[in-house]
Design goal:
The chain has five helices and six strands. The chain has 153 residues and is α+β, with helices and mostly antiparallel strands. The protein is 34% helix and 14% strand.
């Protein structure tokens, strides 16, 4: 697989069997630079770069990138779908119950899948999705009240 610079994006798209378009290249670049963004955020950012791109084109592009394995779609409960370019490594996520911030967590123990269920029902397992939930430092500081330092200070 090609590297992760902007210049590698057309090559990666072609290798994945996708036609290179301005929208696809821009959205893949945005997913790389803004991991865990939702579709609306990516659409706004793409429009600021390209001038015009339809919402449907953004969703079509996101679905194509996910199908091609260039992006991963995660859907934390009660939150919009998020997209990231970190694929194929079986990592997990921490989601803040307050602000919805999402962070990556490497596999805790062992090889993929990280967890082994007590019953596979005949499936050949290759991945486990684990979502850890809690409150980020900023939300904890906000809940503690004024005078409590946050991680941004």
């Amino acid at each position: 697989m090609a590297g992760t610079s902007r210049e590698d994006i057309p090559h990666q798209l072609r290798e994945a069997g996708l036609r290179v378009t301005a929208a696809r290249a821009t959205i893949l670049d945005l997913i790389r630079s803004r991991p865990h963004s939702d579709a609306e955020s990516l659409a706004r950012a793409a429009r600021s770069r390209l001038g015009s791109v339809s919402t449907q084109a953004v969703y079509d592009t996101l679905h194509a990138l996910v199908r091609a394995g260039l992006a991963r779609r995660i859907v934390p409960a009660d939150h919009p779908a998020r997209f990231e370019a970190r694929t194929g490594d079986n990592h997990h996520h921490i989601v803040c119950r307050g602000c919805g911030a999402v962070e990556d967590v490497d596999c805790v123990v062992g090889a993929a899948p990280c967890l082994t269920p007590d019953q596979t029902h005949g499936y050949d397992l290759d991945e486990a999705e684990v979502t850890f939930w809690g409150r980020c430092p900023d939300c904890r500081a906000s809940a503690a009240g004024p005078g409590t330092p946050s991680r941004k200070e």
